[in-house]
Each structure stands twice: as structure tokens, then as C-alpha cells.
Amino acid sequence: MKKLVYLDNAATTFPKPQGVFRAVNDALSFCGNPGRGGHSLSIYSAKKVYSCRERICSLFNFDCPENVVFTYNTTYALNMAIRGLFCGKGEILISNLEHNSTLRPIFAMQKENENIKYKTFDALSGNDDDIVKSFEGAVSEKTRMAVVTMCSNVTGRILPYGRISKICEKKNITLILDGAQCAGCVKIDLSRLYFSAVCFAGHKSLYGITGTGFCIFGKGANPRDILQGGNGVESASPYQEGPLPERLEVGTLGVVGICALDEGIRHIQRVGEECIFEKCSYFERKLCDSLCEMKNVSILGRTEKKVATLLFNVESIPSERVASLLNERGICVRAGLHCAPLAHSSLGTLSTGAVRTSISHFNTSSDIDYFVDSLFKIQKT
Amino acid sequence: MNFKYFIFESVSYALKAMSVLKREGVYARLEKIRNISALGGCGYALAVHVKDANNALYVINANKINVLSVSDEL
């Protein structure tokens, strides 16, 4: 059988823990539509959904399960938070590492309303102090909202989001954090952060299945709904009112995915985020050291404070071609722009793209050795 | 008439109350209800045995969970 080495975990993790398979099977066997009916399958399902809200809170040290709103991915969560919390005028501050899931809703809002402006700050170069200075320098009296990734999906850099949070608190700026890339592999303590919303993917490093995401709204945040429909609350009213989370969870929830996410998080809690981070970082350093020895390979945007994502290019071979050649050897990586054009523009790779490897704690030392050996052969040709 | 019914704004609040009651050793059963005056439509209630009702209300209030109404029957 052909060897398979999966190094595209920043897109979605693979494989999933065995418990996730069992959770999916259990959900398909016993779950009805949660929060709608009074029969046993509906009640069982509602309890499973609420249990996942509680588990998410225990992972992030947050005590309001009702502020956990399930979505279908981080993009949906970010749209919900950005559009639901923005006051309608003023400036939105974003970093130059943001994903299109942040950029596009803001650009679309700007197109709809000329009173909305956006401004970027540099989060690529320098150390944490430089990033904080850059953020502080970009804040003006017009700044109403900041949307900041906690960790870049392109370079893996972990931003100083705690310090950014303190500035936003002091200046009364609505802060939305994109936690898609670091949940599960970096310890996040929401009880110590000021935030209006934090958006996560369920299917990445939380080891759930695709089609799951969620947004945790800060205490006191009162987002407007961006979609309307049935939610099992105040059904006789033509308007969608009532409390979180149901006010924003219209239509049937993806209960199978939520059960899988619950089990994915249980897996992380069993293994420990610190342990996952250490293992992945060790492999990333091993990978980086080996790539540094290849004269035709350039590593891009690497910093010390990062998750196990590594970006590189091979001289004279387009990034997509490198990914394709790796795929022929059974290695899955992601090439191109990674839906983050500002980051690639800042790195000088907007026209070429780059190759991204991203490691999960299911990877092994032999995966890394096989990848290094394969890339060595590719870059020599 | 062995139960008191605690009506909540949403299934999530009912389950939050159920969770805090469980921690305090109070058994509660989740039930679907239809109550236009309290809920403006459908919703959920917790059925708690009358002997535990006062304690349940204390625990729910102490955890700042809003109870829309407490009823003797659904």
C-alpha cells in the first residue's frame, strides 16, 4: 500500500481520534433534532449539544456555555461576529495576516457602506513588542473594531493577542479574535482575556469533523442576527428575539458534527494541549532544520513563537508543482495563497504562492523523515 | 401533582439549570412545553419533584439563570 503522510492539518486535521468515529456513529444512531421536540431522541440530542457547549467552556476556561454559538466553520462564525457586532461606522483594524474569512466580510461591508473603513497593522515582522507597537500605532479615535487572528494560518505565528486584548479593553474597541489555527494546540484562557467574540473551527486542531465551528461571545456582547429562521424560541413571534445561543442558531444544528467535536475536545483534554504543542513543535523544528540544509529551499516567515506550520518554496519549481510532486509520493501539503492574500503580499509571495506543511500530534517521526527525503529528491532535480 | 415545572427562555437555559441542579444533587427532567403567555410559543421546562422545588429555585437563582415562571402543571 502506498504510504500516506498527511501534513495539511491547518486545513483540516487527519486522521481523527477513534472516539470521534464512535461519537459520529452514536449521533447517527440516537440523535434527533435538538431543541425542537419533546421526544427522547430530541431531548437526548439537546443534551449532547449542551454538553459540548460545556466542554468547550472547560477547554477555554469560560463560564458561559450559553455564549457558545455553533456554526458550520470559522468563516461562518467570523461573518456572524463581524457583521453582528459592528456598529455601522468607523474603522476596523485588521492584521496583515488575516484570512479571507475576515477580509471578505469587511470588504463587502465597506462596499455596502462607505462610512466603514479598514486599516491594517503589521503582524509579520519583528517580535511581539513590534506587533503590539504596530497595533497601537494603527489605533485611532475612529477605531471601533479590531479583528485579529490569534495565529497565522500561513506562517503559524502566534500573535500577542493577550496584549492586544488589553489595549482594546482600555480603548473600548470591540475585539474579535480568529482562533481557528490555535485551539487545541495552544492553551487559551478566555477568563483572562477581554474580547467580544472568539471564532473557532471544530474540524482543525480540535479534531472534530468538517462542517463544524463555533463562536464564543464575550459576556455582555449583544450581536445582531445575520440569518433568520426557526430556532425553537418564541415561535409565535414573527421576529427573532430571545437569548443566545438560539437567537443566532437558526435552522437545524449539525448535531453529528457537534457530537464529534465534543469527542475531539475530550481527546485533547486527555492528551493535554501542552503535550500536543511540544510534540508538534519538536517535529516542526526537526523539519525546519532539515529544510535549512537544502540549498534550493527557502523557509518563509518563520518565528520562534509559533504553532507547527512551516512555509517554504523551492527555487525554480512553482509551489503548486512542488505540492503535486509530493502528492505523487503520498504526501499531502497545501500550496498557493492559503486564502490569506495580505500575508503573502507581505511575504513577497503573492504571485508565486508557497508550500505549507502543518503537523498534528498524529504525525510521527517517520512521517517527517519521509517528507524530508522526498523533498530532498524533488529540490535536487 | 408531584412536580413543579420551571419554565426557561430556551432549551440551553433549561439545560444549564439542569446541569447546576445535577451538581447539587437535585434531579430534574427536561420537558417540551407550549406556553404562549410565558414563552410566546414553544419552549422547555424542567420538572422537579415538589420536595426539591424550593432548593432548586434557590440553586437556579444563585447561578443567575432566569426562570420565566414556575408552574404546578404543564
- Secondary-structure element pattern of chain A, one letter each: EHHEHEHEHEHEEEHHEEHEEHEH
Query: How is the largest sheet of chain A built, in terms of strand order?
Result: 2-8-7-6-5-3-4
Q: How many helices of chain A in DSSP terms?
A: 11
Number of beta-strand segments of chain B: 4
Mean pLDDT of chain B: 92
- Strand/helix succession of chain B: EHEHEHE
Present the secondary structure layout.
The complex is a heterodimer of chains A (381) and B (74).
Chain A: E1 5-6, H1 18-30, H2 40-60, E2 68-71, H3 74-85, E3 90-95, H4 100-112, E4 116-121, H5 128-138, E5 143-149, H6 161-171, E6 174-178, E7 197-201, E8 213-217, H7 255-271, H8 273-292, E9 297-300, E10 309-314, H9 319-328, E11 331-332, E12 334-336, H10 341-347, E13 354-358, H11 365-380
Parallel strand pairs in A: 1-11, 3-4, 3-5, 5-6, 6-7
Antiparallel strand pairs in A: 2-8, 7-8, 9-10, 10-13, 12-13
Helix pairs in contact in A: 1-7, 2-7, 3-4, 8-11
Chain B: E1 3-8, H1 11-23, E2 28-35, H2 36-39, E3 41-49, H3 50-62, E4 67-71
Structure description:
The complex is a heterodimer of chains A (381) and B (74). Chain A contains 11 helices and 13 strands. Chain A has 381 residues and is α/β, with parallel strands linked by helices. In chain A, helix 6 (161-171) links the parallel strand 5 (143-149) and strand 6 (174-178). Helix content of chain B is 41%, strand content 38%. Chain B has 3 helices and 4 strands. Chain B has helices at 11-23, 36-39, 50-62; strands at 3-8, 28-35, 41-49, 67-71. Chain B has a 4-stranded antiparallel beta sheet. Chain B is globular and about 30 Å long. The chains are: A alpha/beta (381), B alpha+beta (74). Chain A binds chain B through residues 34-35, 37-38, 42-43, 46-47, 50, 53-54, 65-66, 232-237, 242-246, and chain B through 9-13, 15-16, 19, 30-33, 36, 39-44.
Summarize the structure.
The complex is a heterodimer of chains A (381) and B (74). By secondary structure, chain A is of the alpha/beta class. Chain A is 40% helix and 16% strand.
